Structures are given as structure tokens and as C-alpha cells.
Amino acid sequence: MSAATLTPGEPDSARDGAAAGTAGAATPGAPLPGSRPSRGGDGGADRKAPLRPGRVILHVSLILWGAIWLVPLAWAVYTSLRPYAETAEKGYVSLPDTLNFDNYVAAWTQADLPHYFLNSLYIAVPAVVVVLFMSSMAAFVLARFSFKLNLAMLMFFTAANLLPQQVIITPLYRMFLSLDIYNTQFGVVLINVAFQMGFCVFVLSNFMKALPDELGEAAQVDGAGVWRQYYQIVLPLTRPALAALATLEFAWIYNDFFWALVLLRDGDAMPVTSALNNLKGAFFTDNNLVAAGAVMIALPTVVMFLALQKHFVAGLTLGSNK
Amino acid sequence: MSTLTQKTRPAKARKVRRYSTTDRVVLALMLGIPALVVLAFVWGPALGSVFLSFTRWNGVTAIQPVGFQNYEQIATIYPPFWPALLNNVIWLLVLALVATPLGLFLAVLLDKNIRGTRIYQSVFYLPVVLSLALVGFIWTLLYSQNQGLINQLSGAHVNWLGNSDINIWAVLVAASWRHVGYIMVLYLAGLKGVDPSIKEAASIDGANQRQTFFRVVFPVLKPINVIVLVVTVIEGLRAFDIVYIINKGTNGLELLSVLITNNIIGEASRIGFGSAIAVILLVISLVFIVTYLVQTFRKEDAR
Prior knowledge:
The complex is a heterodimer of chains A (322) and B (303).
Chain A: H1 53-80, H2 84-90, H3 102-110, H4 113-144, E1 145-146, H5 150-160, H6 166-179, H7 185-209, H8 214-221, H9 226-237, H10 239-255, H11 258-263, H12 272-282, H13 287-307, H14 309-318
Helix pairs in contact in A: 1-13, 3-13, 4-7, 4-10, 5-7, 7-10, 8-9, 10-13, 10-14, 13-14
Chain B: E1 5-6, H1 21-53, E2 55-56, E3 64-65, H2 69-77, H3 81-110, H4 117-125, H5 132-143, H6 149-154, H7 167-192, H8 196-204, H9 209-220, H10 222-238, H11 241-247, H12 256-265, H13 271-297
Antiparallel strand pairs in B: 2-3
Helix pairs in contact in B: 1-13, 3-7, 3-10, 5-7, 5-11, 7-10, 8-9, 10-13, 12-13
């Protein structure tokens, strides 16, 4: 999945033509997309949104699409709240007599979900912290200094994030075996860091390039070394991008299925997304339990998304809309 | 590294500044350590796949060079290969020709400054925050033969995920459900960047909405189009989780990614063979990755 992963973007888009309207996702200080206020005060005829027939059709079709879009999740929630006995008797498509959280309790305890949630935290938190730290250093060097291999290095990082995971898995698996980090959560953290680095370097270097050059110059006049320039000047100014990336990367690493599946042998060490594979069948024996499990596993990223929507969308579009 | 300079505005001539030895060492480490991690755990293994693809190895006995034999066998006597490749192509086409235009369409609708646009956006984006594995899990609730919503609602008895003629399409509906929101967000960001005055100019010139979009707005979105294309292709090539969670990628749901995984962690452990499939996947993805990089970084060079 991992989610896809990239959204790197075309650094020139802002300069060509688009400059006027772009509040520049990567412009420090400017609001990130998503928080953006409405576009300038130019109201074209179609922008004032009076209730015309066209508008009505638009809203009706959007509501319809939106409803269809919510069906799978709504169905999962509905199914999860109904006792198995009742659905077995009346069928799943029926009005409820009882709605309760029994399936949640059963899925939570039977499948030992807390254990797997903790595993996810043990993997995702260190991975996000390390990848942001490392990629911010690399991005700082690439964005604020120019040397011969600048562009080549940026490509080296960016392209690494675009490879399908399966392309590297065979040698990686052998390597993990010989390094004795196969079947360790440390190993999974490591590969997540390495694999996500490219995207973070790309986004952060775009962001840092947009910071004023004078910052570095002033710091130099003050006799600050490069580390202080990075740590005390550039890094604090990069906070909006770091927040956006942290949100997005946490979700991506939490959602990763493949690395842990192949690089961990013990089901016990698996993060919750990869554990789905073993839990299916073994513990989630009927659709009601499957639904309860699915809702609980979806909850962390869904709640994060609803609470931090701005960061989520900003992270995705930072790269694409410089 | 000898001409290390602080970045200055492109317009100005570059000022060459000398850095102290300490600064040079610090900079080298700041870039070097992350680069080393990526080299060791991403590019190294990628090259390793290429090397192993020309060998036969079961992971225990000595590695034997075999030339192109693995590739020959894949193309000639390995039954799942062509169906898997075909499935990958179908996957790509459905994402590119159905899900992506739908995402663009929604983005265009939602860009019209309508009331409640944030709510609509959240709804369409919601599936994107779920893992594909979980998406597979959730959709089994709709597809399941006896307990699923679709069959219970329609009274049909279709084995949506078990019938190898139709399961790829059923899975693609689920995968598209997630892809559309992703594309929508990318295009929304792109559309917000389009200068409103060019739309106005077009309408003053008498262009209707459709003409304005296809002749004026869409061409300006070219950079986003490239990103969307690459995102879509990479998603298509990477697809794995959703089929693996449904039936381990068998019985009509074979994909190249699954074949690679099966050859290295299955009982067979045919490492050279699995690597050769990986290299085929690598070559296909590199074509798109290079296109993307050239597009993205072309003008950067001129700075």
C-alpha cells in the first residue's frame, strides 16, 4: 500500500502560470492547502452559489455520490453493532432489534487487539521520528547549499520511494537474515525509515528552498556553524511541513502491510495491519466480528484524519504544488 | 564538493563561500548518513535483485549463475506469469481510465466553491486513510457470498470473490474506492493553483464551461497530470495487500507482486526465479519513475 506514497511534484508549477492563485503549499508562513481561505475576490458568475437549478443538480449528485461512498464504512459500523444471533436469524439486511458493543468487546479480547495496536505504535512512532530527523538533515543540505551532486542526490532519494516494495524484498530478506534483524521490530522500523526517506526529503527540501536565503547569510555573519543554522534557524521554520509529514507518515507506516508480513515471522510481533492476515479466519469468525475488528483498526487513522485533516491534505499536496 | 556554496537567489551570481572543515564534515554527515541508509536498504537490494535474477539459489547451497534461464522459464513454463501480468495491466487500466477520471471529475465539481465542500471532500477522502489491507477486509463484508450486503440485498448468489472470472473486477471496485479520493485531492490542489483570470478570459471569449475546462484549464494542469499518472502507475504495480488479504493472491487474483513474494517466502524459496520477476517489475516501474524525474527536475538544473 502503502499508500501510495508519493506525491512529489513539479517544482515549476508555481512559477509557470499558476503563480497568481497558488498560495504555495510550500511557501513558509502561507496557509497550507485545506486551510486556504476562498480564492481572491474575483467572483465569476458561477462562484457566488445562488440556488440555481444547476446548483441543485450539483448538490444532489454530490450527495448521492457521497452516500454511495460511505456505504462500505457505514455497513461495517452497522454490522458490527448487531449481535450475531440476530443477524443469523433475520439476515444482515434487516432492521435491528438490538444494537450493542458486544462484538467490539469480543474482537478486542479474543483477537488480543491491544497487543497488536501496541506493536503498531512501537514500529510507527520511532520510524516517524527517525525518518523526519534524518530527512530534514538531508533536505537542509540539499536545499540550502549547492554543490555538484545536488540534483543527482535529490533524484536518488525521490526515486527510492517510488519503487514497488516487492522489487527489493528478496535481497532485503536475505540481508535481514544475515544481519540478524529478521523477525525484529527494529528491522521493520529500519526499512520503513529507509523507504519513506525519499518522500520526506523531497517534500522538505522543496519547503526549505522556499525559505529566504538571507537566513543563512545572516547566520553566517553571526558566525553560526551549519549545524546551528539547521537546528536553530531552518528546522523551527520548517515546522508546518514537519507536522504535515508526521501525520501522513504515521498513517502510512501504521497502514503498511507488506514489510512486517515478510520481515517478521512471529505473529506476536506483528503490527495490527499485518496481523489482519492471521486474525481473519482465526478469530474473526463471523461478519459481525470482522466488522467490529475492521472498525477498530480503521479508527486510529480515521480519527487522526478528522482531527488533523489540514495536515493530512497538506502533506499530500506539499510535494505536488510547490 | 569543492565548490560548496550557500544557495543564493537564482538571479544573482552565486557567491562562493568557503566553509570551515568542521562545517564540511557536518554537512557531509548530514547528507551522508540518510543517503547511506537509502543506499543500503533500498538501492542496494534493488541491484541485488538484478544480480540474483541471473542465478539459481535456494538460500542454502551455493549461488549458481544461470544466465537468462530464469527469464526464459518465466515466459515459457511458469503458468501464473502471464495471467498475473495481465491482471496488473487490467489494474492499471481501471485505475487510469475509471478511477482517475472520476477523481478529476469530483475535484472539478468540488472546486466550484459550493457550500459544504469540506464535508464532501472529507467523505471522498476518507477511504484513502485506510490501508488497502483493511479496504479488502471491509469489502468482504459487502461481497461475502452468504452474509454479504450485495447478495443479501439483490437476492443473488454470486461468489464475488471466489469466482475467478469476476473477482478481479470486484477487487478493483474496492481499490478504486480508495484511489478516487487520492486523485481528487491531488487535482483539487492543482485546480486551486489555476489562475482564475485565464478562466475568465476564456468565458469572455465565449467558451462554455466544458470548453474552458478541456481547452484551457486541463492543459495548465499538466504538472499535476504527470504526478497523477505516476501515482496511478505505481499504485497499479504495487498492488498487493488487498488481494493478499482476500485470498493470498490466487484463483484469479494473481499479481506480479504476489508471485515475487510467494517465490521467496513460500516453501519453494526459489530466490533467483523470484528476483527475475522482481526485475521485470523494476524495469516497468523505472520507465515511469525516470519519466517522472525528468519532468520534475528538468528545469531545476538550469538554476
